[in-house]
Write a structure and sequence with these properties.
- Helix content is 46%, strand content 10%.
- It is mostly helical and 230 residues long.
- It has one domain (11-26, 41-226): Dehydroquinate synthase-like - alpha domain (Dehydroquinate synthase-like, alpha domain, Up-down Bundle).
- It has a two-stranded antiparallel sheet with strand order 1-2. Strands 3-4 form a two-stranded antiparallel sheet.
- A hairpin with a 2-residue loop joins β1 and β2.
- α4 (117-126) crosses α7 (181-189) and α5 (133-150) runs antiparallel to α6 (156-168).
- It is globular.
Length: 230
């Protein structure tokens, strides 16, 4: 995950149940990635890193999305046959380009990088951080995509492509910990991109394009969440 989504221009810490709520802006002068190291990792760790790479592809790059779809759907060992040099480079290029447009996030350009993260931040806290970040982001993208589809924004084909990528990377499609929808809603309203007691979400408009929706209908959020909880 560090290679696919290395910290570029931002550092933050969590406080209580709120993820990355206290932060600053700082960029390393150089970042080095040795993709040979990925061969030493358990498959689950690779899957967790793929979650952020998939996110970058979905919000910015139909081309990278297609590459991932082709690679991860190959049987057997889609991850092992991945061209990691290319995938890691493209993932970091996307994040760098988004950050470079607004280095100090004064215009909110970074919010696209929060796709899936509003739900993910809640899930991590509610699981006492036993639900790993990559798992939480993947599930957050599934929920956000479903909401976008219900709002008539994301078409069903693009939603199914997103979900097939997540499933092919062996990432979860349900939240496995005991919680309540009320608890999740409370944390969504306190997330860093939400204001004035409403729920703001980054949603997928189409493959390669995201949109920020303010004051999402809470009833739609509740109905959608019920589909993803055990």
């Amino acid at each position: 995950m560090a290679q696919g989504d290395t910290i570029i221009n931002k550092v933050a810490i969590s406080y209580k149940l709120l993820k990355n709520i206290i932060g600053s802006f700082y960029s390393p002068r150089f970042t080095f990635c040795d993709t040979n190291f990925l061969q030493s990792l358990p498959e689950k760790e690779v899957s967790l890193g793929l979650s952020e790479i998939i996110k970058h592809a979905l919000i910015y790059s139909p081309k990278l999305t297609k590459t991932l779809s082709t690679t991860l759907s190959s049987v057997p060992h889609g991850q092992e046959n991945c061209n990691w040099d290319h995938v890691i480079y493209e993932s970091l290029r996307i994040k760098s380009e988004i950050v470079a447009k607004d280095p100090f996030d004064k215009l909110g350009a970074h919010k696209g990088l929060s796709y899936g993260h509003t739900f993910a931040n809640a899930f991590e806290g509610l699981s006492d951080f036993n639900f790993r970040h990559g798992e939480a982001v993947a599930l957050g993208m599934c929920i956000s995509g479903e909401i976008s589809n219900k709002l008539g924004i994301l078409n069903r084909d693009d939603l199914e492509l997103q979900n097939s990528l997540i499933a092919s990377a062996n990432l979860p499609l349900k939240f496995p910990h005991v919680t309540s929808i009320d608890q999740i809603i409370n944390l969504l309203k306190r997330d860093k991109i939400s204001v004035n007691g409403g729920i703001n979400l980054v949603i997928l408009k189409r493959i390669g394009k995201y949109e920020i929706i303010n004051d999402v209908d809470e009833a739609i959020v509740r109905t959608t969440l019920s589909q993803f909880l055990f």
